[in-house]
Write a structure and sequence with these properties.
With 227 residues, the protein is α/β, with parallel strands linked by helices. It is built from eight helices and nine strands. It folds into two domains: 171 residues, Alpha/beta knot (3-Layer(aba) Sandwich), CATH 3.40.1280; 36 residues, no CATH class. It has a five-stranded parallel β-sheet with strand order 2-1-6-5-7, with helices on both faces. Strands 3-4 form a two-stranded antiparallel sheet. The protein has a two-stranded antiparallel sheet with strand order 8-9. α4 packs across α6.
């Protein structure tokens, strides 16, 4: 089972996606276990302040170190109580690029994965110094926070966990072969052989199995028209 804890100031950005489609079914099957933790729950003041003005001034706010360090300490203690350890990931534009191989590595991770989601102008630099998180980049662009990259990491890794997709996809097993052939799984077509009153139908090479050849299951003629 893939176990993931997400540390964020905005759990509402994470939870709805986890409750849909394949990720929801993976959790129901016991193949994926995701816990979304609100960093404000680890603050010590009554107003639950988790950000502050940068030292020396400047625009924007910086996430405070104290709630993050407290949260990671608690998660590490919980893991160690069960004879486990954690793998701390930090989505960052400065990190290692996220690839299919990286996703495969996460899918077989036996440690608890903890994803720290930055926001605003980033996190207190003391977090990097104290925790040395594994920084990972979801792409060569800048986002407002780490919540969307966290979902990308979870989704890409979870679909590679055996049993999550049901029948194994050939593309999940042989990504390098898929790239060498310049093939994308999203180029599939539904079983029906025609669309919009036969304006578009399959060429013979991609005709659905069981159609044509006198079969009554498909009365749409095979054509080489526009796809």
């Amino acid at each position: 089972m893939l176990r993931v804890d997400v540390l964020t100031l905005f759990p509402e950005m994470i939870a709805p996606v986890l409750g849909q489609s394949i990720l929801k079914r993976a959790q129901e099957k016991g193949l994926l276990d995701v816990h979304v933790r609100n960093l404000r729950d680890f603050t010590t003041d009554r107003h639950k302040v988790a950000d502050d003005i940068p030292y020396g001034g400047g625009a924007g706010m910086v996430m405070k170190a104290e709630p993050i360090l407290q949260a990671v300490d608690i998660l590490r203690a919980e893991a160690q109580a069960h004879g486990e350890d954690i793998r701390l990931l930090f989505p960052s534009p400065h990190g290692r690029p996220f690839t299919q191989q990286y996703a495969k590595d996460l899918s077989t991770e036996t440690r608890r994965i903890v994803i720290l989601c930055g926001h605003y102008e980033g996190v207190d630099e003391r977090v990097r110094i104290a925790l040395s998180p594994e920084e990972v980049s979801a792409g060569d662009y800048v986002l407002t926070g780490g919540e969307l990259p966290a979902l990308v990491l979870i989704d890409a890794a979870a679909r590679l966990v055996p049993g999550v997709l049901g029948i194994p996809s050939p593309w999940s097993r042989n990504h390098s072969r898929m790239r060498s052939l310049n093939i994308r799984s999203t180029r599939g077509r539904p079983r029906s052989a025609a669309w919009e009153s036969q304006r578009c139908c399959y060429p013979a090479i991609t005709k659905p199995s069981g159609c044509g050849g006198g079969s009554r299951r498909c009365e749409v003629p095979i054509c080489a028209g526009p796809i």
